[in-house]
Amino acid sequence: MSSERKTHLSPPEYLALERKAEIRSEYLDGDMVAMSGGSRAHNLIVTNIVRELSTQLKGRPGEVYPSNMRVKVSATGLYTYPDVVVVCGDPQFEDANVDTLMSPTVVVEVLSDSTESYDRGAKFGHYRKVAPLIEYLLVSQHELRIEQYVRQPEGPWLRSQVSSARGQIDLTSIHCSLPLSEIYDKTNPA
Known about the structure:
Layout: H1 11-18, E1 25-28, E2 31-34, H2 40-57, E3 63-66, E4 70-73, E5 78-80, E6 84-87, E7 100-101, E8 106-110, H3 116-120, H4 122-127, E9 135-139, E10 146-150, E11 158-162, E12 168-171, E13 176-179, H5 180-183
Parallel strand pairs: 4-7, 8-9
Antiparallel strand pairs: 1-2, 3-6, 4-5, 6-8, 9-10, 10-11, 12-13
């Protein structure tokens, strides 16, 4: 094996490394970027969302995955790990390893100081190119606030926001709702 460090990886090279790695990395244009761990609030919010959606989808079509399910944006080549991803219908995977989803219906990102601008900007730009994706949620971990973006048949994505402890986000694409009181359970946002 060569001791030279390879700086540009092909997608198959990335996947071969990633499938053996202990630390997850995103991939775009030949570059792997290691992902950092989440805060206590971040992890609680992800757990609460997964619990709520899994409970509501029990016995119905739809699968909920936490942040270990890799998603590929075929149009741009991005491989990423959303905090929560839901797929309805037949899940489409990149290959027989069944570890890279290509057909998310809902993607949830819990915002952190280091990723917020990326999640709102470039990453959302990538996600918009995933045809089956209907809803994108940005969840604040510092305050009660969830932003929802819904794909419209034609035109821009429709944005709404809920920031009340008694509020909820309705995910019409999967017939589920996320009460903020449940999403922020055991966290203390401002």
